[in-house]
Amino acid sequence: MNISNWEYDFSSLPYWDNREKTDVTDELYESTHDFCLLNYSISEVRMLDFRGFLALFKNKAAPQLVFNCTALNFPKCTPFFAESVPFCAVLASVYCEDIQKELDVTLIIDLAKNRFAFAPLHQSDVRELHPMTEEKKGLFLLLRDGSKRNVTKLTYHPFDKAAKIEDVAIKMNMFGNVQIVPRLGK
Predict the structure, then answer these.
(1) Which residue among 59, 65, 150, 161 is the one 20 to 30 A from 8 at the CA level?
(2) Which among 121, 72, 77, 116 is positioned nearest to 93, based on CA atoms?
(3) What is the model's pLDDT at position 30?
């Protein structure tokens, strides 16, 4: 199967078969570092609220799935791609058992080190990815409310943990900084 010249057996992805039950779309975003994000099986979950699942592939010549996350939902939203290194950020929603509601988070993906992290978003009626900037090579800052947050200091997890995410926990340190921590199943 071919999507935007990425040849892969996409039907092997979890929930790909949702297209047999309802109208779905897929959106592929390509990086200049020979990887892409595929937001797939996007369907309407609530009125005018479209979400899908995320798969990350590298090597367009012979695509390899390196990250797949189905515990999170991914709204239609253009991701941030770094120019100097294989690094990206994408908007995601995840259910938080602690507060019994869904949270919007920024999923940070560091392809060079095969790891991911979450950065919390301020909740608002506007669902959008906070802008990011690359201050210098490898130093990324999340811009929010006039402040900058160094995302290299977030707690990162190896890619293989993404398939085990069940929900997230919210932790706050003594300085009032919120941390999103994935709860992992077996």
Answers:
(1) 161
(2) 72
(3) 93
